[in-house]
């Protein structure tokens, strides 16, 4: 008789163990989203002359993280963040994490992120690929 009470529990447990990892991820696995959505979450848009690189993604469970990468004309690298985030400091090199970034910009509400933006923080990393092109990595997320 006790085995009959355990049988439903064991069936549910076996189903959980055998389920696909995506079924148990709780939304933590990155999903592809339009790049306009990824940028808009951080209060930005694709700059003039830019083209997306790879897939833009969203990942979340309790916190949400969007990411996008795009190439743009190197001449617009300073103009785009100044136009998008007018109260933010200019991108710089002082606090760039990693050797790949030539310029970086970290924003929060106390550091130039405008009101009404869904994200709590935005990170922009720029790599100069050649004399005319820059690769921009954009991330926006909640805390």
What key phrases describe this protein's structure?
4 helices; alpha+beta; 143 residues; globular
Could you say which structural class the secondary elements and strand pairing correspond to? alpha+beta
Radius of gyration: 21 Å
Q: Sketch the major β-sheet.
A: 7 strands, antiparallel
Shape: globular
The low-pLDDT segments are 3-25
Description of the molecule:
- The chain has 143 residues and is of the alpha+beta class.
- It has one domain.
- It is built from four helices and seven strands.
- The protein has helices at 2-18, 21-24, 35-41, 79-84, and strands at residues 31-33, 51-52, 56-60, 64-73, 103-108, 121-128, 133-141.
- Strands 1, 2, 3, 4, 5, 6 and 7 form a seven-stranded antiparallel β-sheet that branches.
- The protein starts with a helix and ends with a strand.
- Residues 3-25 have low confidence and may be disordered.
Write the layout of secondary structure elements.
Elements: H1 2-18, H2 21-24, E1 31-33, H3 35-41, E2 51-52, E3 56-60, E4 64-73, H4 79-84, E5 103-108, E6 121-128, E7 133-141
Report a brief summary of the structure:
The chain is an alpha+beta fold.
């Amino acid at each position: 008789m006790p085995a009959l009470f355990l049988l439903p529990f064991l069936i549910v447990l076996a189903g959980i163990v055998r389920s696909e990892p995506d079924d148990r991820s709780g939304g933590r696995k990155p999903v592809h989203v339009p790049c306009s959505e990824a940028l808009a979450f951080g209060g930005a848009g694709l700059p003039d002359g830019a083209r997306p690189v790879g897939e833009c993604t969203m990942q979340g469970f309790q916190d949400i993280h969007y990411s996008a990468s795009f190439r743009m004309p190197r001449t617009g690298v300073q103009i785009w963040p100044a136009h998008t985030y007018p109260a933010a400091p200019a991108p710089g090199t002082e606090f760039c994490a990693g050797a790949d970034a030539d310029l970086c910009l970290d924003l929060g509400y106390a550091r130039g992120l405008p009101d009404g933006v869904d994200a709590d923080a935005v990170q922009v990393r720029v790599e100069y690929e050649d004399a005319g092109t820059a690769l921009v990595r954009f991330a926006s997320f909640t805390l």
